[in-house]
């Protein structure tokens, strides 16, 4: 006769399998399942991972079901379908996912404090510097997107870039780096007047008319 602990574990596993199967049949039943919250422990000295928000938890659980239902749909369209499902959910249906995210964030704070307490002063300073670098990068990307949305004019191409784009295919060299090297050598051999005439000819052939050239 199997030990009681082993029998109890088997019953729990069987019960969990039936529960997941029954909830996968419809979205309304599915959203009542609260995603399991795993403890964010450090692995090989790495910092704990930031937990997913409520929406991303929903995406993670819905994605296999949508892919199974629409096997020929592209990944980006799968995400669109899941996003549409999320928008149709009520506040009560979203609540389990959002609550799980709240619990995970609290655990994340505990794990992060434990992780930071184990760092040396040099490691803590390096971690702080890396965080500032990531924030600055995100800020720059966000700023660039805002400027593009406002119709920021593109930076004009230099004379050499125009020359390189026109002659790249016919350039000597078998690799991209080799072609660029040969083009730069050819460009440096040209005089200022030759560079201006070459770029003027290329622009006029492309339909541009410029009064002055750099």
UniProtKB/TrEMBL annotation:
GO terms for cellular component: nucleus. PROSITE patterns: HMG_BOX_2. Residues 48-116 bind DNA. This is HMG box domain-containing protein. Keywords: DNA-binding, Nucleus. It holds the Pfam family HMG_box. The lineage of its organism: Eukaryota, Metazoa, Chordata, Craniata, Vertebrata. It comes from the Eukaryota.
């Amino acid at each position: 006769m199997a030990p009681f602990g082993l029998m109890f574990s088997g019953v729990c596993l069987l019960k969990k399998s039936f529960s997941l199967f029954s909830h996968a049949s419809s979205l309304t039943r599915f959203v009542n399942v609260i995603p399991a919250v795993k403890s964010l422990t450090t692995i090989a000295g790495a910092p704990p991972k930031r937990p997913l928000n409520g929406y991303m938890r929903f995406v993670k659980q819905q994605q296999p079901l949508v892919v199974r239902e629409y096997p020929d749909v592209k990944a980006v369209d799968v995400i669109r379908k899941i996003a549409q499902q999320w928008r149709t959910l009520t506040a009560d249906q979203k609540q389990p996912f959002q609550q799980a995210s709240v619990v995970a964030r609290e655990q994340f704070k505990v794990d992060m404090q434990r992780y930071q307490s184990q760092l040396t002063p040099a490691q803590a300073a390096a971690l702080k510097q890396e965080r500032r670098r990531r924030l600055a990068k995100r800020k720059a990307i966000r700023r660039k997107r805002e400027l593009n949305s406002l119709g920021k004019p593109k930076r004009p191409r230099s004379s050499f870039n125009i020359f390189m784009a026109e002659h790249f295919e016919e350039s000597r060299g078998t690799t991209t780096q080799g072609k660029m090297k040969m083009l730069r050598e050819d460009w440096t051999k040209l005089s200022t007047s030759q560079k201006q005439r070459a770029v003027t000819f290329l622009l006029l052939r492309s339909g541009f008319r410029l009064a002055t050239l750099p």
